[in-house]
Design brief:
The complex is a heterodimer of chains A (142) and B (881). Chain A is of the alpha/beta class. Helix content of chain A is 46%, strand content 15%. In chain A, strands 2-1-3-4-5 form a five-stranded parallel β-sheet, with helices on both faces. In chain A, α1 crosses α5. Chain A starts with 5 loop residues before the first strand and ends with a helix. With 881 residues, chain B is of the alpha+beta class. In chain B, β3 and β4 form a beta hairpin. In chain B, α3 runs antiparallel to α4, α4 packs parallel to α6 and α7 packs antiparallel against α8. The longest helix of chain B is centred in the C-terminal third of the chain and has 64 residues. The radius of gyration of chain B is 77 Å and the shape is rod-shaped. The two termini of chain B are 143 Å apart. The chains are: A alpha/beta (142), B alpha+beta (881). Chains A and B meet through α1 and α5 of A and α22 and α23 of B.
Chain lengths: 142, 881
């Protein structure tokens, strides 16, 4: 695993800190890159030598919304297959549906309770970053 | 032959009869030149012969003649002849009786002359008196014998004395005889009315000749003298005349009658035959001979010649009549099919002596013409009566007095009267009259029966048997007899109820049509195919300014401006082709102004012809209103657009607000919760218990607030969501929700009682949310119960299906029910989790479905939340089990 395998697109510094805190607890915080708006995120993605293994995308972003970013990602060959998990406060049906329509791999609402928040994030990161490896739960079930 | 004999007998004094008499007299007279006694003897014998003939003929013909006058004469002359024979035999020189010189011969003579005169004198008495022949002949015979006895015994006065000649007795006797003869002549004339006038003439002549010859006898001196000669000739003539008159009465007349009968018999044009009782032919007249073509008919059977050829004798009614004995006239009518004739055959008995018929007169009369005429008449009558029977019109006849003479079945049917009830009775009273407006004398039928004028009455009333009026029209025509006199009238009538009904219906229809036309709100114009208006209503007058009369002079083209003509023609074409048209036109008013109209045209069949009806609606007002409406519409649209825009903005704002709430409010809470957590995690050991407790509280508060925000989000979604209504099985839905809830704490003792057939129509998503909220509540507030009972059911109240969710949990105070459904309102303390927004959401969902929602409960006694949904809810709990 190389560095910068997780791209965090998150404008809220509080959320950023809480996400990084969870990633840190997982030992993944070194490999996370944070962009603060959509434009910045696309700049990073289109200039990165390798696309990240996982993109955690907030929807409500300054300069360019998360859905626009998602749309842009999915039409570009370099990022077309990159896993994107929408991680946002919204539970609006339209947001959920649009995200999936635009090619989001997962849509996870940010829980208010930190324990739940942290658990959700751990499951997401654990799943997508270990995609090449059998997911222990799933594997066991098989 | 009969006719020649008739002419000989009918004229004995002229022609050959007279010639024979004169010739005989001449022969007799010539014998006197030779010998007077021979002459005398011959003359006397001849007279005696005539007298005997008279007697014999008179006797023999009496049964036919019944002539008492003649039988008296006959009897007298027969015995006069006998006495004359004695006279002849006693004549001098004949030497038959002893010679006495001529006295006895003269005595016989004078006696015979007395007898003769007496006979002629008394005979007229028997013109009117009855006399039996036997006693008459016997009487005269007795007289003759008496005379002979008296003379032969010489008791008779001397009449001739030889030498001295005739005695006085003889001479005066002759005068007495002459006197008697004159009296006899007078007597005859007295009774001539009862005798044939020719007989009277002959008798008178005979008496006259006798008188003359008696005069001659009074004069003679010698019995051989001239006087004697003339007297004997006269006597012979008078006897001859008596004979002729007898012959005339007893033979000539009957023979003439017979001859006339024979001529008449042949003159009868009908074939007439005389038959024996057994039908054998005896005589035939000329017509019968012509009919049969047979001359040789005597002894043949009448059936063979005179009856129909094809008819067997055993079946022949005439022969049957003959066999039965013809006692009186019988008449038969027979058809002769081979000849195509009809004969009437009459059988009449010929009476002989007594009542037994001796023969039958059989007369055939050709009645073919009559029978044909009768048949034709009968046929014609039958035809007439069958016509009378079959016609639908009632027919009756009446005489001049108004009495019904015939009635046909149609009359019976139409009026209910029976023929027998009417015939001979005053039909006017029964059928027609006694109405107050016209007595019998005003009745046209009566008048026709009197004046012979044909009358037709279009509308009148007859009365039927039960007294009800029948409307009729009738024709009364006179009946005439052969002389052309009016003998009555015949009436043919019809029940015109239906016609009157049809007429009334037509009038009503016309009235309705007129009423519809006149009360129509629109102008109506009717045109015919020739393009002329034929009708117009009042509104048409008002619309166009023309009167109806003026409009009927106009054409459809006249009421439209020139530029409309093409479209007008198109409208007519449409009516022609499709039966209707709908178009808008401008119409030209009488004053030249124009106005817009909407015209509904229709082609209407009206009997033979086609009419076009146009309904004109003045659209001026409508056009004005439409313009106004368009203006208002535009304004309204503008307003709506504004409002919609506002509403959209509001919605947008609300959405962005919700978005903000969901997104932005949760962020800080997450931070509070998250950093409190981090603080405890990272710096827990450095903090005392109280500090850690505070941090936990912060975390909880933040979490709860997040839940409240989520509740609000749900609520706002409920409000904003568009309803997708479909049939929903609430029982299934409740079961699913209950299972989900139960799965969170499988160990809890909860008894779910969910009615199995709860159905309604609604938005399944919202209804699931509704049940989630309600069951979650029930689950939550019944946590302390063992077992908790949560019931989902329905009941019908006031015709409405009311669902409910009931639990046996904490309940609530009724005083709080008003605020129960307010958002964030919580009745219970922190022992029950909750955001206070569940029931508010429930209320919102129920209201969005058009229903109501309320609650019942007592503290610690459980709570029931009731709600209604759509009208299509089904709450029959047992219907599907």
């Amino acid at each position: 695993m190389d560095n910068a395998t997780i791209l965090l697109v998150e404008d809220d510094p509080n959320d950023e800190e809480l996400i990084l805190r969870t990633l840190r607890s997982m030992g993944l915080h070194e490999r996370a890159t944070v962009t603060r708006n959509g434009r910045e995120a696309l700049d990073y993605l289109f200039h990165a030598q390798r696309p990240p293994r996982l993109i955690l995308l907030d929807l409500k972003l300054p300069k360019m919304g998360g859905l626009e970013v998602l749309q842009a990602l999915r039409v570009d060959n370099r990022t077309r297959l990159t896993p994107v998990v929408v991680f946002t406060s919204s539970i609006e049906q339209t947001d959920v549906m649009t995200s999936y329509d635009l090619g989001a791999n997962s849509y996870v609402r940010k829980p208010v309770d930190y324990r739940e928040f942290s658990d959700a994030l751990k499951q997401i990161a654990g799943y997508w970053l270990n995609l090449n490896m059998p997911v222990p739960d799933r594997h066991d079930r098989h | 032959m009969a006719s020649r004999r008739v002419s000989f007998l009918s004229s004995p004094l002229n022609g050959s009869g007279l010639f024979s008499l004169v010739l005989m007299l001449v022969v007799l007279a010539s014998t006197a030149l030779y010998s007077f006694i021979l002459f005398h003897t011959l003359a006397e014998l001849f007279a005696i012969m005539v007298a005997v003939l008279v007697g014999v003929i008179g006797w023999q013909t009496y049964p036919f003649s019944r002539n008492n006058f003649l039988i008296f004469l006959s009897a007298g002359y027969l015995w006069i002849g006998a006495v004359d024979l004695l006279h002849t035999l006693a004549y001098e020189g004949l030497s038959v009786l002893p010679e006495d010189g001529g006295n006895r011969a003269t005595q016989f003579w004078i006696a015979a002359r007395y007898m003769e005169a007496g006979t002629l004198l008394l005979a007229p008495l028997f013109v009117t008196r009855k006399l039996t022949p036997g006693p008459a002949f016997a009487g005269f015979g007795l007289l003759a014998a008496l005379i002979a006895g008296v003379i032969l015994t010489d008791r008779f006065p001397d009449a001739f004395i030889p030498g001295s000649g005739l005695t006085d007795f003889k001479v005066y006797s002759e005068y007495a005889i002459i006197g008697m003869l004159f009296v006899a002549l007078w007597h005859l004339w007295e009774k001539r009315g009862g005798l044939d006038h020719r007989v009277v003439s002959l008798m008178s002549l005979a008496i006259g000749v006798t008188i003359l010859s008696e005069f001659a006898f009074t004069l003679y001196q010698t019995v051989y003298g001239l006087e004697n000669f003339v007297g004997h000739l006269g006597k012979l003539v008078s006897f001859w005349l008596i004979f002729i008159s007898l012959i005339r009465t007893t033979l000539t007349q009957p023979f003439r009658t017979l001859a006339q009968g024979a001529t008449t018999y042949d003159a009868v044009p009908d074939p007439t035959v005389v038959l024996d009782q057994d039908g054998t032919l005896r005589q035939m007249n000329e017509a019968a001979r012509r009919l049969t073509g047979e001359m040789d008919f005597i002894g043949r059977d009448c059936h063979e010649l005179l009856h129909p050829r094809g008819l067997a004798k055993s079946e022949c009614p005439v022969c049957a009549g003959l066999a039965g004995g013809v006692a009186h006239r019988l008449s038969f009518e027979l058809a002769f099919k081979d000849k195509g004739e009809w004969h009437q055959i009459t059988l009449s008995p010929i009476s002989g002596q007594g009542t037994r018929p001796t023969g039958v007169v059989h007369v055939s009369r050709d009645i073919t013409q009559r029978v044909r005429a009768e048949l034709a008449l009968r046929r014609s009558n039958e035809e007439l009566s069958s016509i009378l029977r079959s016609v639908g019109e009632g027919v009756f006849g009446m005489d001049v007095e108004g009495r019904a003479t015939f009635i046909n079945p149609a009359l019976e049917r139409l009026t209910g009267w029976r023929s027998a009830d009417l015939i001979g009775r005053d039909i006017h009273v029964l059928l027609h009259g006694s109405r107050e407006d016209g007595g019998p004398h005003e009745c046209p039928i009566r008048r026709t029966a009197q004046d012979g004028q044909v009358r037709h009455v279009d509308s009148d009333m007859f009365r039927n048997h039960s007294g009800a009026d029948i409307p009729v029209d009738y024709t009364a025509a006179p009946l005439h007899d052969a002389e052309g006199h009016v003998t009555g009238s015949v009436v043919v009538f019809r029940d015109i109820s239906e016609r009157l009904q049809a007429q009334r219906a037509l009038e009503q229809s016309e009235q309705r049509y007129r009423a519809i036309m006149e009360n129509a709100g629109d102008a109506i114009l009717v045109a015919n195919v020739e393009g002329r208006f034929v009708d117009a209503n009042r509104r048409a007058e008002e619309l166009l300014g023309f009167t109806r009369e003026e409009l009927l002079e106009l054409r459809p083209t006249d009421i439209h401006p020139p530029e409309e003509q093409e479209r007008l023609a198109a409208a007519f074409r449409s009516m022609e082709n499709y039966g209707f048209s709908l178009s808008e036109h401008m119409v030209l008013h009488k004053d030249g102004s124009l106005s817009p109209v909407e015209v509904a045209g229709a082609r209407i069949p009206a009997g033979e012809q086609t009419l076009f009806m146009g309904t004109f609606r003045d659209t001026s007002e409508r056009h004005r209103l439409e313009a106004e409406r368009r203006r208002y519409g535009a304004e309204l649209e503008r307003t709506v657009a504004e409002r919609t825009r506002d509403l959209k903005e509001l919605n947008g704002e609300l959405e962005s607000f919700s978005y903000s709430v969901s997104h932005d409010l949760r962020g800080p809470l997450r931070a509070v919760n998250g950093f409190a957590h981090a603080l405890i995690e990272d710096f827990g050991p450095q903090l005392n218990d109280q500090a850690r407790s505070y941090l936990h509280r912060m975390q909880d508060a933040a979490t709860r607030m997040g839940q409240m925000i989520d509740g609000l989000l749900v609520l706002s979604r409920v409000i904003r969501r568009e309803l997708a209504l479909e049939p929903v099985n609430l029982s299934v839905l409740a079961r699913e929700v209950a299972d989900e809830i139960g799965a969170t704490e499988p160990a809890r003792p909860v008894e779910w009682r969910i009615a199995p057939t709860l159905k309604t129509r609604g938005d399944p998503t919202l209804l699931r949310l509704l049940l989630q909220n309600l069951l979650q509540n029930a689950w939550k507030f019944s946590a302390a119960r063992d077992p908790a009972v949560i019931e989902v059911g329905a009941e019908r109240a006031n015709g409405e299906c009311v669902f409910y969710v009931r639990d046996n949990g904490a309940g609530f105070d009724l005083l709080d029910t008003g605020s129960l459904f307010r958002p964030f309102h919580r009745l219970h303390g922190p022992e029950y989790e909750g955001t206070g927004i569940g029931l508010a959401t429930v209320l919102r969902i129920v209201r969005r479905h058009g229903g109501r929602c309320w609650a019942e409960g007592v503290p610690d006694g459980g709570a029931t939340i009731f709600f209604t949904l759509s009208d299509e809810s089904n709450c029959e709990a047992s219907s599907n089990i």
